[in-house]
Amino acid sequence: xxxxxxxxxxxxxxxTFVTEMLFKLKHCGDNGVGIATLENGIFHVKKxxxxxxxxxxxxxxxxxxxxxxxxxxxxxxxxxPAFENTHPHFDCKKTIAVVMDGIVKDYEIHVKKLRxxxxxxESRCDAEILSHIAEELENKPLxxxxxxxxxxxxxxxxxxxxxxxxNILIVRNGPEVYIGKGKNGVFFASEPDAIAKCxxxxxxxxxxxxxxxxxxxxxxxxxxxxxxxxxxxxxVPMKSVPQGFPHFMLKEIKEIPDxxxxxxxxxQRRYLEIIAQMIRNARSVYITGCxxxxxxxxxxxxxxxxxxxxxxxxxxxxxxxFYALKDIKPGDVIIAISQSGKTTDVIRTxxxxxxxxxxxxxxxxxxxxxxxxxxxxxxxxxxxxxNSIPATKSFVCTLITLGKIALALACQRNISVEVDEKxxxxxxxxxxxxxxHVESKCIAIAKxxxxxxxxxVLSRGILFPLALEGALKLxxxxxxxxxxxxxxxxxxxxxxxxxxxxxxxxxxPTEEDAMQDTYVLMEEAASENAMVIAITHxxxxxxxxxxxHVIKVPYTQSKWIQVILRVIPLQFLAYYAGTIRGVNPDKPxxxxxxVVL
Length: 597
Fold this sequence. Notes:
The protein contains 19 helices and 24 strands. With 597 residues, it is of the alpha/beta class. It has 3 domains: 2-244, Glutamine Phosphoribosylpyrophosphate, subunit 1, domain 1, CATH 3.60.20.10; 248-425, Glucose-6-phosphate isomerase like protein, domain 1 (Rossmann fold), CATH 3.40.50; 437-585, Rossmann fold (3-Layer(aba) Sandwich), CATH 3.40.50.10490. The strands form 4 sheets. The chain has a 7-stranded antiparallel β-sheet with strand order 3-2-4-1-10-9-11, covered by helices on one side. Helix 16 (464-478) links the parallel strand 20 (454-459) and strand 21.
């Protein structure tokens, strides 16, 4: 995963434009940077497994010659941050270079087949298979290679191939790719800002299509090989935050559908099966984490219990060493969740637990982190680089990862579940529908929510940890003191604080009897003239009889999918309330992306 860019320059060397493009894409990842250019049929390559700023300050690019090239910024999902896993990747004959943004779903199948055909792999990165597949087709025209890649390689990816004859092939099967042209040449990138100063007009490559880019020629084709008309637009967006968003937090909420698409396909099946077996054979299973990761773990405990038939013990990593460590014995399994993989409380917990014989499963977003190296087995959540401090897309992708573990466990134990792979594949589309339908309503409600310094967020069952997460988001992004509660606890003290105008957010449970009981609590809060806000599904006709502030997400039978969809309005409410209150949601006061003591 990461960001890709490249193209042809006219009079100036290609390397002249690389710094600008890489800096504009630096938010895409910090696990590696790579450049491949071509001059007189000779590749010039420079790559290193660290971030853009270090790369540009440490590496001498004076020997990167030629007027055509491709570049990559890496966010690791397949293979740790290392030189051999850094793009660009080459075929066996070193005649084809490739860079890729995204994830190949059927990576294991292709690797096995290509090895049987005699191909030798230099990395553990899924992008490398593309160069070897193209090598198998080297005697075919580019139009056939592009069509073959789209038809044979499953996943969510966009890739750029640079061939030794100087031609570029761009294939899009998911992540956006923009191509532009101007007096400086023809350039492409994952985001338009990266090429905005190089071109005068741009074109968004359609999904499920490919482009053949030559020095003086540009042709586009759909997945069937049928030509597509290329219509360049004159206006190229230029914003301080990529793609026109005022803050990364909003951008990353809007990226949730894409992030979910990646999370669904990022895991290799054999590792899911190994992890499920580890949990199945465990003496006891613990789930730990901090903040949003801890709340995701609480939801994961519901999933493992209901779908996998295993009841894990969930405890915050800030508490684990003091109150759970003494009970850890050989044969116990700990599922440790940390987006960064660096949080001190988590690292201390797992190090102490391993000394007592525990087996560690890491759930992480940052490969190459201490948690990855400490784990007996680990799974990336696959959401891509998250720049805003409040967790948004990383939270939902963690839920996907935990859900897939629960499904693998259910399969091994022959337990029937309501969610299968077909249902899971619908989640990104449902998330996109949710974003499109609820944002305007959330903006309107946030204007009132922002007037208060306190708020309550309530729910039940598997949605109860979501109430805790929603309250945390209001604290982080809006500086509103918010308390997350089990809805039934409202009468046991907190009701005394429910006065006129106090925002009280009810995330309606999915179970019918629990819903009915929650309606009664909503009515009680409304009778105190509180600002009652309901987050529910589209078939709910009762909530709007109690309050005008109702946010509805698509209906699904699966409680697990409902959790993921209802995260979105909570994030929108916190973001917009925060911006109205003058808070920078990307960098909340006194907070960092991960806590290191």
